[in-house]
Design goal:
- This protein is mainly alpha-helical.
- It has a domain of 92 residues: Arc Repressor Mutant, subunit A.
- 49% of the residues lie in helices and 5% in strands.
- The chain is built from 6 helices and 2 strands; from the N terminus they run H-H-H-E-E-H-H-H.
- The protein has a two-stranded antiparallel ribbon.
- Helix 1 packs across helix 3 and helix 1 packs across helix 6.
- It is elongated, with a radius of gyration of 17 Å.
């Protein structure tokens, strides 16, 4: 499983919003703080809004916020909204028909790892990670650390 750049950015953005202690976070702030192209980020946020993970508000006090409590939004929800279920079912090499009956060269060790990752992403909420980001000053930005 390889997450798309859009999915990675979606995870970073939802984590940023989850760690904030205010309602709406301006999209420009997200773009600037995370060092993600504003236009690319708005497309990603639109997908997350369409899938019911985010809520958006237009206007000077607008922005985005989580549609639900961060404790009920998982990494899996975000991945599913952007990259889809295929991330957890398709061959990592992209070979059609790869599976237990007709495996690719790395299927034997990739399939269990992929399944474990799915289980982890389903069980990990944004709230848990947001708390760690704030407590441990974990990095979210794509900019090189100083």
């Amino acid at each position: 499983m390889v997450l798309s750049k859009a999915c990675t950015y979606g995870i970073l953005a939802t984590l940023y919003v989850a760690k904030e202690e205010r309602d709406f976070v301006p999209i420009r702030e997200l773009s600037d703080e995370l060092h993600i192209s504003f236009h690319f980020l708005t497309k990603i946020l639109q997908q997350l809004t369409n899938q019911g993970i985010l809520v958006s508000l237009k206007g000077p006090k607008g922005g985005i916020k989580l549609a639900k409590d961060p404790s009920s939004v998982t990494y899996y929800d975000v991945i599913l909204a952007i990259d889809g279920e295929e991330v957890f079912t398709e061959c990592v090499l992209g070979l059609p028909g790869c599976g237990h009956e007709v495996p690719c060269p790395i299927h034997e060790f990739w399939a269990p790892t992929r399944d474990l990752l799915k289980t982890t992403f389903v069980s990990q909420s944004l709230e848990e990670s947001a708390a760690s980001i704030n407590e441990l000053a974990l990095r979210l930005s794509l900019a090189p650390s100083k």
